Amino acid sequence: MTAAVPTLTRRITKPTPIAALMAADGYKLDHLRAYGPGVTRILINWTNRSNKYLPDATHAVAFGVQAFAQSYLTEAWEPFFAADEDFVASEYERVLGAYLGPNTIGSDHIRALHRLGYLPLEIRTVPEGTLLPFGVAALTIENTIPEFFWLPNYIETALSASIWHPATTATIAVLYRELFEAWAERTGGDLAAVDFQAHDFSMRGQTSIESAAASGAGHLISFLGTDSLPSIDWIDRFYPGENGWVAASVPATEHSVMCLRGQDGELETFKHLLHLYPAGIVSAVSDGYDFWGVLTDILPKLKDQIMARDGKLVIRPDSGDPVDIITGETDLTKSSPLARENYADLKADGILSNEQLGAIEILGDLFGYTINDKGYKVLDQHIGLIYGDSITLDRAKRIFERLEAKGWASTNVVLGIGSFSYQMVSRDTTGGAVKATWAEVDGQPVDIQKDPKTGRDPITGESKKSAKGRLALTRDETGEIALIQGATPEQEAASLLQPVWVDGAFVRIQSFEDVRQTLRAERAARAARAAS
Questions:
Q1: φ, ψ for residue 303, nearest 5 deg
Q2: Helix, strand, coil percentages for the chain (3-state, nearest 5)
Q3: How far apart are CA 320 and CA 202, in angstroms?
Q4: Which residue blocks in 221-286 are alpha helix, DSSP H?
Q5: Distance between CA atoms of 248 and 201, rounded to whole angstroms?
Q6: Tell me, what's the pLDDT at 455?
Q7: Closest Cα to residue 113, out of 74, 81, 154, 71?
Q8: What does the CA dihedral 141, 145, 149, 152 come to, rounded to 10 degrees?
Q9: pLDDT below 50 — which residues of the chain?
Q10: pLDDT tens digits, residue range 161-191?
Q11: To 10 degrees, the CA torsion angle through 467, 468, 469, 471?
């Protein structure tokens, strides 16, 4: 007798038409009454206030506003405006009746917004990719119809949740980019290789696929290397245009591949990979069992096959201290010339251990190297090295310092940037915050400013004092961006903050390539200011 096959009940629930309304802090629900009578306009701004938790950064990258305007202000609200008004209102009252209890607020304002058919807001921002000094507003939002004065601060939560992460990643990526470029120039490395030298490995450590996509896009403003595939679609969706080469990677293994045949089968696995990929770059995890054994036993047996390929085999250690694994436990950065000469003698005599030499020295001895114009060694083009775990800005710097001390160009290694750099951050990393600075009450302008006496940091002296009044951005005599508070209409018209999204539609759209070009130009201008 055949057993009965259980029936699977599949339930697919579509987003409710009030989902966009629910993308807010609950305390904002009744601010339309809490503001009091006579309010007709509210102006808010987003500012990265502090580098307290990112001290190497002097500027924050403006990024993510266009994606927010499309994904939340446009797409997320479409079901709301498309649904029946009575249904939307009843759903809103049903949810909030249980949530707010006796302080329920009704739905007249929601009905009015539904009948209008769009969000009556204006977003003004700088071109994305702009480098903004901390404390300078990146955007402003205000309502365009008096009745909906409650909207700008209502959408604050969604705005903040949408843009802080990609903008923070973009800011951190600039620090990596500038570090890598500086060391490439110092040691004669190929500057073009820097595009691929920092590889985004952070997706698995992100809080969601969506956050991985947005954060990964922030990384890709400064680099091409990534394994965060969702970022490609995210960029195509939200920053369309002639974007050129957006992202790149190579065939690469993981431990499930390298350990499938056990340690005794590791040599055969490498042979299989070299046969499978007779040309181009292929990366192989090499620490499944004995990393040093791979370098000193397996690779010598495959040397002829590796050198005969039209491409590069990249060796990937994935455990241990990345500084020691790559450059060796012998740290020559603080050694005298005599000590360095002694190191060379010990190396030549074969006295140093694999751990003391490090992967770079072992690969160089096995496969050979050339000397670049600045006198630094460059691995043979058939072999490479990547470390994709536990990389930080400090570790990257120490790796480059030790490579230089042993005579190697910094671009001999690729570093994987993971979730420690791109996910273990928060809105506080750059002090991002939204604050209202101006309102219109009873037909009169009112400047708004937060200035708490208890808000000053006892160590840094930084204050939580917010900007005040109408806002505009200008460039000072050096070309640096400065904030104008209490701006006149003329200053606002000439401001770097310009409309990008008004009353439900874009008035300006940037491609991703334009964001990249803007950042490149900003970095060049900043470097010129620093040099003058």
A1: -55, -50
A2: 45, 20, 35
A3: 18
A4: 230-238, 255-258, 266-276
A5: 12
A6: 67
A7: 81
A8: -20
A9: none
A10: 999 999 999 999 999 999 999 999 999 999 9
A11: -20
Range(s) within the chain of domains with CATH label 3.20.140.10: 26-167+425-531
CA–CA gap between residue 184 and residue 193 (Å, rounded): 9
Q: Domain 189-422 sits in which CATH superfamily? A: Aldolase class I (3.20.20.70)
Q: Residues 206, 212, 214, 215: is their CA dihedral positive or negative? A: positive
Could you tell me whether strands 310-316 and 279-285 are parallel, antiparallel, or unpaired per DSSP bridges?
Answer: parallel
- HSE, side-chain direction, 13 A CA sphere, residue 23: 21
Is the separation of the CB atoms in 156 and 45 below 8 Å?
no
CATH of 26-167+425-531, one of 3.40.50.880, 3.40.109.10, 3.30.200.20, 3.20.140.10: 3.20.140.10
Q: Where does 117-265 have alpha helices with state H? A: 151-154, 156-187, 209-220, 230-238, 255-258
As beta bridge partners, residue 438 has 43, 447
The region, left, alpha or beta by phi > 0 then psi within -120 to 50, assigned to residue 262 is: left
Say how many residues make up the chain: 532
Q: Whole-model pTM?
A: 0.95
Indicate where the chain has its CATH 3.20.20.70 domain(s).
Answer: 189-422
Q: 83 CB contacts (<8 Å, ≥6 apart)? A: 17
Among candidate residues 313, 320, 327, the one with its CA nearest the CA of residue 396: 327
SS3 assignment, position 487: coil
Distance (Å, rounded) from C-alpha 31 to C-alpha 48? 25
The torsion defined by the Cα of 244, 247, 250 and 252, in degrees rounded to 10, comes to: -160
Q: How far apart are CA 243 and CA 511, in angstroms?
A: 6
The pLDDT of residue 475: 97
- The one-letter amino acid code at 160 reads S
**CA–CA dist 72, 15 (Å, integer):** 13
Residue 283 sits at φ, ψ, to 5 deg, of -110, 135
pLDDT in tens, 313-372: 999 998 999 999 999 999 999 888 888 889 999 999 999 999 999 999 999 999 999 999
DSSP one-letter string for 27-52: GGTTHHHHT-TTEEEEEEEEEE---T
Angle made by CA atoms 292, 293, 297, in degrees to the nearest 5: 125
Per-residue CA distances from 458 to 49, 432, 453 (Å)? 16, 20, 12
Whole-Å CA distances, 120 to 44, 286, 367, 518: 14, 57, 65, 29
- Distance (Å, whole) CA 76 – CA 115: 17
DSSP state letter for 398: H
Nearest to 387 by CA among 480, 477, 318: 318
- Take residue 243 and report the two structure tokens written for it: 């974007």
Rounded CA-CA distance 130/495 in Å is 14
